[in-house]
């Protein structure tokens, strides 16, 4: 329902305010009210200035007075530079970014008069009205469906190229309906001048081309790309002689300083076709990560279990700077996994480790990822299990995201024997909360004992503990509907586990006073309310390192003699 039907008093006050403005302002006339096709309240009015009449109309949106009215030209003309195209809305001093419901349509009309008269002062000189318009990359490109993205640093590289010399480039190009997007991979033969350190999107193609720095006039090709193919031999012979294929298939970047255009040359029915790409310069990215994350690129993290928890931890660590992963999981991704896993429909039917590998490489460049399609602790061969455990031992941090005690025990053995820190977490049945925990060599109990201490802590509360993760993270209440953990519940626990991981990898002194936490997401079990967090104190216990059986030197000597009799002889 339109606002003026439910707020008639405000509608009447709008009419009165404009009538009063017309009485006192000689420039306002022909005020007339009407109702539009969609029951929008509309007022027509004329503004006179220096013998010129501007016919305008103001549309009150259905969301008024929470959002501003729109003032437009009735004859479809462009009246001012502060206008969204011919016949478009005037950009006035009252806009969505500074709007207040107390502002009236009469004030909008006054603002329109100040704008139009300010640009047309008496005399021959034109006037300029200062703009409060802030440029937005997204707004400027919203109707551009062919985009070439460059970082600010690449512009500086292009500025340093020799003038009127064709320099080889490589770019990636990708279509995601309705937009074609391209970006530079390298400049110079085999990236000799510059090479992109960022990731190349999956399912993108590689295109060759040339960057051509020139002081010649190029703006016309941005507006009419097809002219470039016609004028290329005559106006850019240095570039034309490098385009050995006819027609050429690839990109050409033309420009100088910070003014560049991107052209995509494409063969079509044996003829040279040229498309223009909107050049978009990405904002600076310095300072996006804490300084102590710089060393994460050299750390290897092993994640066992690439389901809903493990996939989220992996992507978080990748965004934080980790580049080396060992992923272990034999499971296949199905459509039912879409409700919680960080992967999407493109992963259906694939092994989770394979799809997670592709996802991580879409986040970070030069990722080193080892994938093992194995379920440790399950019916795997002894040789396969040994191979995986040996690979886990090479990691700087072990993360168990399986909630499976058999997998936990094997990982705990690797952590203890090789003195590796380990993190594990569980999402409680029904999404009522979860536990995150760590075991650090010489600081915490060994993982198996730590887990026992956590279990004892839970039992000590005297409240039945239905915390073991069940199928689909579900639990049945005695009364009422079942509880099922959703993506938000899983994300909270995975996020806290990720913080423990980053704390271990980046800090010598931990910011977490406890090594285990029970985190409530609902008023269930011991939790008084959502976000009720209980620290769990873990007492150092157990010996980190290889287990010693206390055998005597004579026992060892006899064992070696039995194994290597030829040496003993």
From TrEMBL:
The GO terms this record gives for MF are: tRNA threonylcarbamoyladenosine dehydratase; ubiquitin-like modifier activating enzyme activity
Q: Show the InterPro entries listed in the entry.
A: ThiF/MoeB/HesA, ThiF_NAD_FAD-bd, Ubiquitin-activating_enz, UBQ-conjugating_enzyme/RWD
A Pfam short name: ThiF
Domain THIF-type NAD/FAD binding fold span(s) in chain numbering: 296-429
**Matching SUPFAM superfamilies, A to Z?**
Activating enzymes of the ubiquitin-like proteins, UBC-like
Q: Please provide the Gene Ontology terms (biological process) for this protein.
A: cyclic threonylcarbamoyladenosine biosynthetic process
What protein name does the entry list? Answer: THIF-type NAD/FAD binding fold domain-containing protein
